[in-house]
């Protein structure tokens, strides 16, 4: 009985410590005024999207108004580098579809949650988001 009670007390203490640690976790600090991100992972995902949008604008200016057909075609456009090609960015999965007149970019986390939302952007440059599914062109604009 004594060892059972000790195990119970240790379990309660460990649970209390874990809960206190979660409660003490610092809240996300916005990176700039109006930052729509809710976490550092979201900030990195949306930063990646902004780099792709700017690279597409540069590519379009150099190619008669056409967009890049692939992410590889964007290497060297603006600040888009070869290092940005892998389809995994932190805990986000990258999906790109390109064409001469339009493009779409999706960043979807391994698990979509209110602080790890799914994102979508196209040639409009508007980043859209969803809290519980993959984002699309009809999703709401990203807000904090």
Describe this structure in words.
This protein has 144 residues and is an alpha+beta fold. The chain has a single domain (36-144), classed as 2-Layer Sandwich (Fructose-1,6-Bisphosphatase, Chain A, domain 1), CATH 3.30.540. Helix content is 31%, strand content 17%. It contains 2 helices and 5 strands; from the N terminus they run H-H-E-E-E-E-E. It has helices spanning 2-23, 40-62; strands at residues 88-89, 92-98, 103-109, 118-122, 128-130. The chain has a 5-stranded antiparallel sheet with strand order 1-2-3-4-5, covered by helices on one side. A hairpin with a 2-residue loop joins strand 1 and strand 2 (92-98). The longest helix is centred in the middle third of the chain and has 23 residues, at 40-62. The chain is elongated, with a radius of gyration of 21 Å. Mean pLDDT is 88; it is low at 16-24.
Fraction in beta strands: 15-25%
Please bin the fraction of helical residues. 25-40%
Give the second-level CATH assignment, the architecture. 2-Layer Sandwich
CATH class: Alpha Beta
**Overall number of strands:** 5
Question: Could you say what the CATH topology is called?
Answer: Fructose-1,6-Bisphosphatase, Chain A, domain 1
Radius of gyration: 21 Å
- Helical stretch tally: 2
Measured between the Cα atoms of the first and last residue, the distance is: 52 Å
Largest sheet: 5 strands, antiparallel
The side-by-side strand order for the widest beta sheet comes to 1-2-3-4-5
Shape: elongated
The SSE order reads HHEEEEE
Domain tally: 1
Helix-strand makeup class: alpha+beta
Rounded mean pLDDT is 88
Low-confidence stretches: 16-24
